[in-house]
Amino acid sequence: MSFRNFPMVSRVIFGRGSFNQLGDIISPKRLNTKAPFIFFVDDVFKGDPWLTSRIPLSYEDKLVYVSAAEEPKTDQIDQLVEEIILNFKELPSGIIGIGGGSVLDVAKAVSIMLTNDGEAKDYQGWDLVKNPAIYHVGVPTISGTGAEVSRTTILTGPERKLGINSDYTPFDQVVLDPELAKDVPKEQWFYTGMDCYIHCIESLNGTYLNAFSKSYGEKAFELCKDIFIGNGLSNEEAQDKLMMASWHGGMSIAYSQVGVAHALSYGLGYLLGIKHGIGNCIVFDHLEAYYPEGVRLFKEMKAKHDIQLPLGICADLSDKEFDTMIDVALSLEPLWENAIGKNWKKTITREALRELYEKM
Ligand code: NAD
Ligand code: ZN
Question: Which CATH architecture has domain 11-181?
Answer without folding.
Answer: 3-Layer(aba) Sandwich (3.40)
